[in-house]
Amino acid sequence: MLVPIKIENGEIIKDEENAVLKTFKELGLREDHLEEFLRKNISVLFDDEEQETLLIVGQQVSDTERSRCDLIAINDSGDIVVIEIKRDVEDIKRRKESFEFQAMKYVSAYAKIKTREELVSRIFAPYVEKHKSEYSDLKNLNPKEIATRKLNEFLRETNALDTFNKKQIVILVASEFDNQTLSTVAWLCSNNDIRFRCIKTTPVEIGSKKLLKIEKIIPPTTLEDFYTEVPDKIETSYEPGQKQERSSTQRVNLPRMPKLFEWGLLKKGDILELKGHEEDSAAEVVDPNTVKYKNIMMTYNQWGQKITGWSSICIYEWAKKKGTNETIGELRDRKMQEQAKEKDV
User: Fold this and answer.
1) Cα–Cα distance measured from residue 55 to residue 60, given in angstroms and rounded to the nearest whole number
2) What rounded mean pLDDT belongs to the chain?
3) In DSSP terms, which residues pair with 205 in a beta bridge?
């Protein structure tokens, strides 16, 4: 629920304008409008701590039956991520083929891709050709060469060259889901090696303003997700391309940027850089939400995406203070470990 409020003289007052849940159809938007928005802004599907490091590599990719997968990405483990989008629940119900079965068909096809070269030729190069204006810095290369370079750079920097397409992930996106889809996906999550997510993207209208409410429906949050565990070991050595692995610590309840400022781990004026991009990534910390890069204000994730060229990035795993080897995620882990030791004394 969203409740519009006003703050007057320190008093919270309910705003007269109610928040109204809408459908994309009511707003005159088609499925391809939502698809293009997510292609350019895939990071909105994940909150601050659950942010995924992704590279979009395909759009409207046809299979042997001439069905088209909406979006395809690679994550920092080398997994292929199938992102299937439906505008509203009525669009899901009207299809002869179920939402989740359609996605499973795509996964079964893409799971057969064994080499990076095959992904480039079948999926990524056509994507680059379609959006070649977005690769103007590499205009001297053809689409296949651009796709090859971008894919190899991404997998090398995320240390995922050897784990390419070992697993697959499905993300289903809609403004609402029918019970059949949720029931089937819940069963698949419990009885399948393929990871599923169902994410609601609900348009909300408040007066003349329009918002997009993002909710992760599956997998559901459990009580255990809120238990804060202290990392057993913190690696302090760093090599470019080294991947930071989190053990059993649950992401959902880890301290966020404001807490890092409160602890003094970050402060205004600190210089951050991205591991593997130390030469050209220096950005000045402004506040818990903003950095300044080349005199332009932007969010931490926007900065990370601009430097890497990736579609989304988990900034806690990549940003570090200039001249240090620990990421801000590792600094946070160290602080949590120190606090746990103090409690044990």
Assistant:
1) 16
2) 85
3) 20, 210
Instruction: Take residue 158 and report the two structure tokens written for it.
Output: 């995320």
**Residue 1 — pLDDT band, cuts 50, 70, 90?**
low
Closest CA to 199 of 93, 83, 30: 83
**Quick one: pLDDT at residue 5?**
78
Q: What is the DSSP letter of 324?
A: -
With a CB cutoff of 8 Å and minimum separation 6, the contacts of 138 are 145, 146, 149
What's the CA angle centered on 83, arms 36 and 111, to 5 degrees?
A: 135
Tokens representing residue 206 in the block: 């408040």
Do the beta carbons of residue 178 and residue 91 sit within 8 Å? no
Sequence spans of domains, the chain:
31-218, 228-344
Give the DSSP letter of residue 240: T
User: Which structure tokens are listed for 20?
Assistant: 């109204």
pLDDT tens per residue, range 221-243: 765 555 555 555 544 444 444 45
The structure's pTM equals 0.84
The residues, any chain, with a CB within 8 Å of residue 104's CB and separated by 6 or more, are 170, 188, 194
* H-state helical runs in the chain: 31-40, 89-94, 99-110, 116-119, 125-130, 143-157, 179-190, 257-262, 300-308, 328-344
Q: How much of the chain exceeds pLDDT 90, in percent?
A: 52
In CATH, the architecture of 31-218 is 3-Layer(aba) Sandwich (3.40)
Contact (Cβ atoms closer than 8 angstroms) between residue 67 and residue 102: yes
Residues contacting 261, CB < 8 A, separation 6+: 267, 287, 288
For residue 57, the cross-strand partners are none
Q: Which residues contact 284 (CB under 8 A, 6 or more apart)?
A: 269, 270, 271, 272, 291, 292, 293
Beta-bridge mates of residue 299: 290
Contact present, 245 and 235 (Cβ < 8 Å):
no
Q: Average pLDDT of 75-83? A: 95
Q: pLDDT for 49-67, tens place per residue?
A: 678 899 999 998 876 566 7
